[in-house]
Specification:
The structure is a single chain. With about 525 residues, the chain is α/β, with parallel strands linked by helices. The protein has three domains: about 180 residues, 3-Layer(aba) Sandwich (Rossmann fold); about 160 residues, 3-Layer(aba) Sandwich (Rossmann fold); about 90 residues, ANL, C-terminal domain (GMP Synthetase, Chain A, domain 3, 2-Layer Sandwich). Helices cover about 30% and strands about 25% of the residues. The chain has 15 helices and 28 strands. The strands form eight sheets. The protein has a five-stranded mixed β-sheet with strand order 4-3-12-11-13, with helices on both faces. Strands 18, 19, 21, 22 and 23 form a five-stranded antiparallel β-sheet that branches.
C-alpha cells in the first residue's frame, strides 16, 4: 500500500479500514482531490465567493508554512478560536499537514475559559478569528504566549501572500495524535478529546458515505459550528471526503440563518439539530420557505422529539435522520437511515461499530432494560488530554462509556433516556427527563423546555421543569396549572413536574446543548 492511503473491503462493511504505515490525513482529505482531477471543482461556498479544491490545497499549504515559520516543533498544539470561514479549513488542515495538532474550540467563551484551554492543551500558538477576540488575546497574555504566536485573520492573510503553495506532508502514522476536540461542557469544565489521523476517515467512511450516502455531486450545509464534533463532520470532513461542495456561514445557528443559507446555496444535504429544526418549524408557521433542494436532513446533538420529526415530515416531505454521536467517538455511531426509521429512537448501530447496554456492574442488559450505553469502534478517542482518571473511567479497553442512558428493543432500535447524570428516581422508579420534555414540547405554548430533579420539603426527588414560552405574557399561575394537567394526561402519574419556572432562555453550551447542571 502506498503512503497516505486507506482501504476498505467493499464486501464487508464491518471489516476494519486498513491504512498505509505512513499516513497524513491532510493528504487524503485535501491533496487527493487535486490528484484525482477535482482541482477545478468548487469546494467551499461563502457569501459571494467560490473556492476550488485546487485553491483550498494551495491555501492549506500556505497555512502549514505560516505555522512552521513560528518555530513550532512536531506535535505542538495550535489553538483555533475561529468562526466558520475558509480560514478555518486552511489552518486546521495546514497544521495537520505540517505535523502540528490543531485544537478547535468554542468562539463564545470568556478569557478565563480560554486560559484553561491554553494551559490544559499546552498549545504553543493560536489562531483567532471571532467577535470576542479580545478575550482570547487577554488569555494568551495571561498564559505568557508570545504575541507573535497569536495569529489573527489579518496577520495570517499577510503571511500567506508570500508563502509557497506546495508543502511536503509530515510523515505521520495513522495512530499518531492528529487533533483535539474539547467536549462541549454540558456537564462542567471541557475536556480535551484526543483523536488520531485515521479517525476522520473512519467516521466519513462508516457514517458519511456508508450510512448517509453522501456523494460528490452533493452540496452540503451544516448549521452546527465546525468546532463541535457534529458540525466538524457534517460541515467539513464528510463532504470533503467525497469531494462535495460545502456552503459555510460564520453566524450562530438560527432559523433565519438556516433558511437563508438553504434558499441561497440550494444544498442537497442539510445537517440540523433538534432545537433548530423545531425553531424552523415555528418560523414556517407564518412564512413560506423553499426547501425543495434538500434530499436529506441528518440530526444529532440531542434527542429528536417525535413531534418535531412528524411535523417536519408533514411540512417539507423530508424525514429527519436522528442519531447519537459524541466527541469521544468523533461522530454518529447509531442512527436512523433513509429506508430504516423508527421515530423517537436513535436508530440502529452504524456498520463498523458495536454497542451494548450495561448495568452499574458492567453486565450486558437485554431488550427493554435501561442502562449505560457503551460503544466500540475504530474512531474511539485515544484518551482525554491530561486527565488519566477520566480516561480510565471512560475508555475501558476497546469499549467507551458514553455516559448516555439507553435501552433497545427486540428489533434492535436504541432509545435515548438522557445522560446518566440527569436521570432521576421518583417514588423509587427511574425517570428520564427527556420523556417529560418530549411530552411538554407538544404543548402549543412552549418553545423550549429542560427538566431536572429537585428536592421537595420531605427531601424526596421530584421533576422540575424550566420553560421558555412562545409568548412571555403566558408566564403566570394559570399556565402552570394548565401545563401540570397536560403532563398528567400524557405521562405516568409520578412523572409530572411539581414545579414550573419560566425563563427568557435556557443555559446552553456554544453548541446548543442545554446545561442542566446550571439549572440545578
Amino acid at each position: 500500500m502506498t503512503s497516505h492511503t486507506a482501504s476498505l473491503d467493499p464486501s464487508d462493511n464491518h471489516a476494519p479500514i486498513r491504512f498505509s504505515d505512513v499516513f497524513n490525513v491532510a493528504v487524503a482529505f485535501i491533496d487527493r482531490h487535486v490528484a484525482e482531477g477535482r482541482g477545478a471543482k468548487t469546494a467551499l461556498l461563502v457569501k459571494d465567493t467560490a473556492i476550488t479544491y485546487r485553491e483550498l490545497a494551495k491555501n492549506v499549504a500556505r497555512c502549514g508554512h505560516a505555522l512552521k515559520s513560528l518555530g513550532l516543533a512536531s506535535q505542538d498544539r495550535v489553538l483555533m478560536v475561529s468562526v466558520d470561514t475558509p480560514e478555518f479549513f486552511y489552518v486546521f488542515w495546514g497544521a495537520i499537514k505540517a505535523g502540528f495538532i490543531p485544537v478547535p474550540v468554542s468562539t463564545q467563551m470568556k478569557a478565563t475559559d480560554y486560559q484553561h484551554l491554553i494551559t490544559d492543551s499546552g498549545c504553543k500558538a493560536a489562531y483567532c478569528d471571532c467577535p470576542n477576540a479580545t478575550e482570547v488575546l487577554s488569555a494568551a497574555q495571561t498564559c505568557d504566549m508570545p504575541t507573535t504566536h497569536v495569529l489573527t485573520n489579518d496577520t495570517l492573510g499577510k503571511m500567506m501572500q508570500r508563502l509557497p503553495t506546495e508543502l511536503e506532508p509530515a510523515a505521520t502514522r495513522p495512530t499518531d495524535d492528529c487533533f483535539f476536540l474539547y467536549s462541549s461542557g454540558s456537564t462542567g469544565k471541557p475536556k480535551g478529546v484526543v483523536h488520531v489521523h485515521k479517525d476522520m476517515v473512519v467516521t466519513s467512511t462508516r457514517y458519511g458515505v456508508g450510512t448517509l450516502g453522501l456523494r460528490e455531486d452533493d452540496t452540503v450545509f451544516c448549521a452546527s459550528k465546525l468546532f463541535f464534533s457534529y458540525g466538524f463532520g457534517g460541515g467539513m470532513t464528510f463532504p470533503l471526503w467525497v469531494g462535495a461542495t460545502i456552503a459555510i456561514c460564520d453566524e450562530l445557528p438560527s432559523a433565519d440563518m438556516a433558511y437563508r443559507m438553504i434558499e441561497t446555496y440550494r444544498p442537497t444535504v442539510y445537517f440540523g439539530m433538534p432545537t433548530l429544526y423545531r425553531n424552523q418549524l415555528l418560523a414556517a408557521e407564518t412564512k413560506s420557505y423553499d426547501m425543495s433542494s434538500i434530499r436529506m436532513c441528518p440530526s444529532a446533538g440531542e434527542k429528536l422529539p417525535i413531534s418535531v420529526y412528524e411535523k417536519w415530515k408533514e411540512k417539507f416531505g423530508i424525514s429527519i435522520l436522528d442519531g447519537i454521536g459524541s466527541s469521544e467517538v468523533l461522530h454518529v455511531f447509531i442512527c436512523n437511515r433513509h429506508d430504516d426509521i423508527k421515530p423517537g429512537s436513535s436508530g440502529r448501530p452504524v456498520p463498523g461499530y458495536e454497542v451494548k447496554i450495561v448495568n452499574e456492574r458492567g453486565e450486558a442488559l437485554g431488550p427493554g432494560e435501561i442502562g449505560t450505553l457503551m460503544v466500540k469502534g475504530q474512531s474511539n478517542a485515544r484518551c482525554y488530554w491530561n486527565n488519566p482518571e477520566k480516561t480510565a473511567s471512560t475508555m475501558c479497553g476497546e469499549w467507551l462509556n458514553t455516559g448516555d442512558v439507553y435501552s433497545f428493543d427486540t428489533d434492535g432500535y436504541y432509545t435515548n433516556a438522557g445522560r446518566a447524570d440527569d436521570m432521576m428516581k421518583v417514588g423509587g422508579m427511574w425517570c428520564s427527563p427527556l420523556e417529560i420534555e418530549e411530552a411538554l414540547l407538544t404543548h402549543p405554548k412552549i418553545r423550549e423546555v429542560a427538566v431536572i430533579a429537585q428536592t421537595d420539603s420531605d427531601g424526596l426527588s421530584k421533576p422540575a421543569a424550566f420553560i421558555v414560552l412562545r409568548d412571555p405574557d403566558d408566564a403566570n399561575d394559570d399556565t402552570t396549572v394548565e401545563l401540570q394537567k397536560y403532563c398528567k394526561g400524557r405521562l405516568a402519574g409520578y412523572k409530572y413536574p411539581r414545579w414550573f419556572t419560566f425563563l427568557d432562555e435556557l443555559p446552553k453550551t456554544g453548541t446548543g446543548k442545554i446545561q442542566r447542571f446550571r439549572l440545578r
